[in-house]
Each structure stands twice: as structure tokens, then as C-alpha cells.
Amino acid sequence: MRTLRDIDQLRSILREHRLRGQRIALVPTMGNLHAGHLALIACARKHADIVVASLFVNPMQFGPGEDLDGYPRTFSADQTQLSDAGCDVLFSPTVSALYPNGLDAQTRVHEPVVGEGLCGGSRPGHFDGVSTVVSMLFNLVQPDIACFGEKDYQQLAVIRKMVRDLHMPIDIIGVTIVRADDGLALSSRNGYLSEQERATAPVLYRTLCSLRDALKRGDPIEAALQQGTAVLSDAGFTPDYLELRDLMLGPISADTRHAMLLAAAKLGPARLIDNLRVELPASAINTATK
Ligand code: PAF
């Protein structure tokens, strides 16, 4: 695996692969890799000849008071994991290489629909930061495909929409959430949890599972969501949102059969997010419109 920091070097190496007709996959990351990231690399390996991972803790997607400075940086362990997983190129630029004129002077990409509400509501500007850096990485790598985890479901929806809206010739592949044995979705931010908080954390996923079962049975939606929020609060979380949306993150309607439960909640120092797909019965019609 080659590790590159330099944009010109990255471009010239990838140009050679492209000229040979090889398909290129990109896996964008912020490092501190876990099995969820390795599943993205495995997916990329399946779909392409050359796998490029980027590792860049993107300051533009962190709001004031968020964890940019404390974000775990584990570069050499990440490098070893990527190389062992069969990644061909690791691109890890500096902040000044990607944003030479500083963040304030930087052209930004704004997706105005699916990035509204949910995490976009609680983290203003977050998805502009994600869309901007991802489109920059797409321009630098020019991948045929790019893999993103479904844990960040809204991020995946924003990127799919951005690629469609801007006619970028890239297939976006969503990769299933990787969970610990107790159900907790793997996340770099799980490392912020104390032992006791870590023991509580799977309540988030268990709550989503109970809600899914309740909604499948036809329980009233609003009441079920309120009950789920109460369960999270009682367990020690500070819920940010617990919502049911359609698969494109629009509001559910009488016709919605396939939906997503999406949750974000703070537990101690960590803000955890998770989601679960739900199949709604026809009887959800009345409760969805109430
Ligand atoms: O999901 C992430 O780790 C980041 O949001 C991404 C896609 C690498 C952009 O910085």
C-alpha cells in the first residue's frame, strides 16, 4: 500500500491506473478505523481493481464546541489495518493542502433537502462540510465507485443526492452497519464511553428494535416514538431525535411501507447515532396521518 499526502502524486498515480482501464474505488474516512471501516474496504475490493482510502479529519464538518481537537487520531494503526485489508493507496492530505485559503474562503457544497433536520438540525453546517470535502475527494480521486456506511444514513442520503444533482459519474454503495455482539453500532466515538456508559450504549439499538416490532404490529407511531424516547432518557441518554422517515428521509405518508427509524442521543461525552429499517403494515395509514 502506498501512503500519499501530496495531491499531485495522488493524481499522477491514479492517472496511470485509469489509463490501464482499472476501476477505482474510494473509501473516505476520518481514521480511527474499526471493523465497520474494514467492511467498506472489503466492499470496495469487491467492486474495483484499485482501492483508495482517504484519511482526513475534516475540520469543516465539526461545529463550534464539537470534538475536532479530541477526535481520536491513530494514524499508524490505521495504516496497518488498511494495508492488511488490501487497500492499495492511502491518501492522507494536510488541512492546508485541502483548504489552502482557510475554511472561511472555501467554496462549499450545500445540499438543501435531505440534509435538513435530524443531524443536520442539531449540527448546523455539518453536511455542508461533509459534502464539500467528499466532492473534493471525488474530484481528486475520480473514483468509479465510493463506499459509505449505512450507520450515517443521512450522510449517505446527502451524498447520493449530491452525486445525482451534480451529475457526478460515481456509483455510491451503502454498506450495512457493523455491530458489536451486544448490538451497539461500531463508531469511532464509542471510544469516548466509560465502562458503565459502554454497558448502557446498546439500549439505543434495543430501543430501535422494540420500536420496529411495535410499528410492524401496527402500534400508533407517535405514541411508540414517545415511548422509545422515554426509554432512552430513563436509561441515561439525552435523546436528540428519534424519528420515523421514508427511505429518502422525507416525511412518511399513508403510502409509506418501507421506512427508517433514526436516532441520535448523547451518552456521557459521546453523541451516538443509529438507524433501523422498518416495514410498515397497511394499518399504519391511519396512525401516520394522525
Ligand atoms: O463518515 C465519515 O467518516 C466522514 O463524514 C467522511 C465521509 C469521511 C467525510 O469527512
Automatic annotation (TrEMBL):
InterPro entries, alphabetized: Pantoate_ligase, Pantoate_ligase_C, Rossmann-like_a/b/a_fold
Binding site for (R)-pantoate: Q61, Q155
GO molecular function: pantoate-beta-alanine ligase activity
EC number(s) from the headed UniProt entry: 6.3.2.1
Keyword check for Metal-binding: no
Reactions catalysed according to its record: (R)-pantoate + beta-alanine + ATP = (R)-pantothenate + AMP + diphosphate + H(+)
PANTHER family: CYTIDYLATE KINASE/PANTOATE-BETA-ALANINE LIGASE, PANTOATE--BETA-ALANINE LIGASE
Description of how the protein assembles with itself and partners: Homodimer.
Protein name: Pantothenate synthetase
